Amino acid sequence: MSCMFEEDLTAYVDGELPPARRAEVETHLGTCAECRQTEALLRRTLTSLPALPEFKPSPDTRRAVLAKVDALPLPLRERLKALLRPSVLVPSLGLAAAMGVAVLVTGQETQSVDVTDAGTLELAANLELVEDYDIVGLDSSEDLEVIENLHELEVQ
Amino acid sequence: MEPESDAHIMQRVAAGDRKAFALLFDRYHASVARFAFRFVGDPARAEELTQDIFVKLYRNAKAYKPTAQFKTFLFRVATNHCLNEVRRGEYRVSHTPTSPQEDAEEGGVDVAAPEGDRPDEAVAGRELERAVGEALKGMSERERAAFTMCRFEGMAYRDIAEALEASEAAVKSLIHRATLAVAKKIEELQAGTLPARSRA
């Protein structure tokens, strides 16, 4: 760099300098032939750039992007909501209750399963889901937070 | 009726509205594709990068705060993605195919002269493309990103600084060095001293 004002010349040409500095550069240009040359070169360059050929992305890009987005799994929260819909949860409760009755009828001793506790079933269903790392978006901090909370519940 | 703001559309995208995402894609895909093309200099790779950037935007929609300009947020995602991919060695910077004929041979992606141009102007445009491509290839990645946002997207230094997570003073330096590099290549082109195209 040959002049302490040189690095400001592009910002000057772009109109990006604060007014005080702009005034200083203008004053300097009146006395420095080298900076005037650089300024002219920069202005010529900026004038020529619009003649560059334009890059046009392929029309297939839109279709490809929308297909990729459609193929993404729903966020975990939405999948959990779907799992906890009554139409899913009630048959699960029914199945668990039937299993409990069958155990009682056969008279076998067993560890008690609290089939009336919807929270237990909910947790089991959730853990099964969240442990499937191919399904869960592990790059989402929100998903990770939900997983962490479920593990804490499991420990308790 | 006023068009829906980008910030509002992003809120819908964050809530999982894929139609809103398509709207945003239509508004900005040309800008992102231009940026990616200037970053890697290869039309086919620019297409891949553009797709990845928009998928990443969709996945990170909740990270967008409506207080920030959407375009700045988008270009932060785009810059980080391009920098990461180039650093991981997924993409080399080539800036080799410059004519529509070559581009068609290398994947059918169009780098077209402006419509209605005369043939001699189209040739001049392709030569200019070669000079700018050579300059971009010789720049640091951050210079290339800053130059592209400034010269092809018309972004203000302040917004570029936010997209690059840099100071405005740093951006001023990056853009100055990059613009001078382009100016020198164009001078070489005009003086007939620009070397023949080199394949990366």
From TrEMBL, chain A:
InterPro entries: Anti_sigma_zinc_sf, Znf_put. Residues 6-36 form the Putative zinc-finger domain. It comes from the Bacteria. Pfam families: zf-HC2 (PF13490). This is Putative zinc-finger domain-containing protein. The lineage of its organism: Bacteria, Pseudomonadati, Myxococcota, Myxococcia, Myxococcales.
From TrEMBL, chain B:
Residues 24-88 form the RNA polymerase sigma-70 region domain. One of its GO terms (biological process) is DNA-templated transcription initiation. Residues 130-178 form the RNA polymerase sigma factor 70 region 4 type domain. Keywords: DNA-binding, Sigma factor, Transcription, Transcription regulation. Residues 91-119 are annotated as: Disordered. One of its GO terms (molecular function) is sigma factor activity. SUPFAM superfamilies: Sigma2 domain of RNA polymerase sigma factors, Sigma3 and sigma4 domains of RNA polymerase sigma factors. NCBIfam families: sigma70-ECF. Belongs to the sigma-70 factor family. ECF subfamily. This is RNA polymerase sigma factor RpoE. It comes from Hyalangium minutum. The lineage of its organism: Bacteria, Pseudomonadati, Myxococcota, Myxococcia, Myxococcales.
